[in-house]
Amino acid sequence: MSKTRTYNKGWKDMDIRLKSIGVLIDELITTDIKCWFAQEDVMHGKGDVALVGAKKAQEFNGRRNQLIRAIDEALGQGDASPTEKSYE
Length: 88
Fold this sequence. Notes:
Elements: H1 21-44, H2 48-74
Helix pairs in contact: 1-2
């Protein structure tokens, strides 16, 4: 029996600015876990599994960054989130 992962995209439906800090933190934790599993698919999957995992890992990492920025904004620390890479 093969294992397949289901990736829920329901979080895209609601404006991130309308969510409470608790919901944002919950989504951040969930997104981190989903990103970790997608990265596992990249590292240990073969063929299409690795490719799908790579795309999902990138998507989840982008969402993770959005959530971190939204949490910083909600806490009045919007300038604390770097918006660009700090390395060359």
